[in-house]
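re: that chain from earlier
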Amino acid sequence: MEIKETLTIEANENDKGKRIDKFLNELIEDATRTYIQKIIDNGLVEIQGKKITKSGNKLKGTETIIVNIPEDEVLDLIPEDIPLNIIYQDDDIVVINKTPNMVVHPAHGNYTGTLVNALLYHIKDLSTINGVIRPGIVHRLDKDTSGIIVVAKNDEAHGKLSEMFKEKTLEKTYVCIAKGIFKEKSGRIETLIGRDPRDRKKMSVVEENGKIAISNYEVLDESKNHSLVKVRIETGRTHQIRVHMKYLNHPIMGDSTYGSGNDGADRQMLHSYSLKFTHPTKNIEMIVIAPLLDDFKKVAKSVGLDISKIENNN
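^ sequence. v structure.
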């Protein structure tokens, strides 16, 4: 069995008594409990250098755990008739307004209900560069972040789009509802982002062993306790905007990982709103906009924010 990635995880006193499968399920993003139990059964998890094969092993809270993530299984993904909100489509690309609660591509035992399953049903041709698990997928959004996803329908378009993301020649703009009132109504955040040393499932601003992350923000509207914020990112680190908003002490509403959650929103109020890029084959400048989804509009209204300020700001 080929290994795709090896994770080193430190358990601490807060983890004492937890089952190893439950502990890893909390830490490995998008992984199902069944998937975790399978890799334990296959001897791919070590505690203190010793392979374990029992999912019910309890942690002492002082262990170093090694998790070997195997290469994704090559299997026939099932096309699923899941509704897609297609903003734009031609022979080379398709642009989707992704709904929340949707994983972009299969991984870690999640082989159904993903954006890829929907794409296989609705789109005849998809690029093959990323193989059978991620056909057409050039970039991703977090499961509960909504908005723009660009999908490549052939390998030429995929290659050129990937280069644009790598070279940061696209302009990606998000909108979010953040808690509190910003003292500085606009600014540039430039930090390192890496794994939170105290909680591996989170990312955080770190002093070392991180990657440079740059976000530019502007407050578009504010109410008594909330702000409507536009964020243009120059880099695309994991959870970047969510981490940067927390860093400013203005976590995104509904973000149970980087905020308090249970605050009137069922998911993080973060939406990939617009993308400016050069068409990969036509060589023309394109700006695509993903209209806000109903849940975002409803939450914005409930806290007294005017979403028309977004459209007026373009």
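Residues 110 and 273 are 27 Å apart (CA to CA).
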